[in-house]
Amino acid sequence: MSVLFNGPDRGGYFGVYGGIHVPDILLEPLREISEAYIRISRSADFIAELRYIRRHFQGRPTPVSYCRRLSDALGGAQIYLKREDLNHSGAHKLNHCMGEVLLAKHMGKKRVIAETGAGQHGVALATAAAYFGLECEIHMGEVDVAKQAPNVARMKLLGAKVVPVSFGLRTLKEAVDSAFAEYLKDPVNTIYCIGSVVGPHPFPMLVRDFQEVVGIEAREQFLEMTGNLPEAVTACVGGGSNAMGIFRGFLKDESVQLYGAEPLGTGSKTGEHAATMSYGTPGIIHGFKCYLLQDEKGEPASVYSCASGLDYPGVGPEHCQLKDAGRVKYVAISDKEAIDAFFKLSRLEGIIPALESAHAVAHAMKLAKEMEQGAILVNLSGRGDKDLDYVIENYGLGE
Predict the structure, then answer these.
(1) pTM of the prediction?
(2) Which of 21, 56, 88, 92 is catalytic?
(3) What share of the chain is helix, strand, coil (3-state, %, to 5)?
(4) Domain 21-54+93-204 is of which CATH architecture?
């Protein structure tokens, strides 16, 4: 267990996953970020400023809510939510974005650049950049630009430059490709602020560390609320930042089963899903080794999910290590199941979840019936305002 909790090693590996598989031109900028993070993140000034931001700007700690009506309707285990949808900007993403941009400020950077899928990372980074007064550029696939129009408007309103990506499948993978290419043009004045626990070292470690606050809070809150630990914790997994954040709070509690809910989309055929843990094999993408959905040529395969933030063919390297070790179980949730959970949580609890988060809620609903008793804690990673137009257009109002 200590090996699982203390990674990565000096080469950026979690077991056999992760590392730094990048062109030589990126090695020095990555080394600079890694050394600066290790040094600055341990300084009293940095820690004090980040704690102030979390409490007085983000609104942390976010609460844990008991879903009484949903639990009663299911008739099994009791369901609780860690309410990251109540974090400022509407999702967990601000946890690492404020940390990343604070790091950029301490490093003397003038500009931040990133990719986004559902737009939550883009909104969070634009929010952080506005707070600190840095330039911000967000790359987003054209498919996601169309699906997530409210978040595109929010990014622009916050002062960010939004760059639509028109090549390939025009979704999250291509947004990462485009943002990395732009970052390479000026790594001296720019810092890449990755949106999940993916990419070359030190990004998986850096994002995980900033997200760990979710798990630390959740464990303390659940114990105070109920006097016990939950029997299970579940979170959606695309790249895996929100899941890694809450899992870290419970990794050492062997009585707590951890579940990662990934997108099965509309089926198990290539291009119909983004269920990397269920159907992927080890490969390299965006500078790191992980489980990866690949085509017959070994290239990243086309992926799909109704949730734009989950349609990524890879997954964080620490998740891969946790899967191989058997500490986390990864399950696939279909679009249909996620949409059903989206409507049920909205109608029964007055909480509209992000479609990404609805995958975790859907698994909790299935698990509650199977368990019959006990408690399940769901990381509700974001709110669903951004998804309303897409859901209404494709599924109506669920009546």
Answers:
(1) 0.95
(2) 92
(3) 50, 20, 35
(4) 3-Layer(aba) Sandwich (3.40)
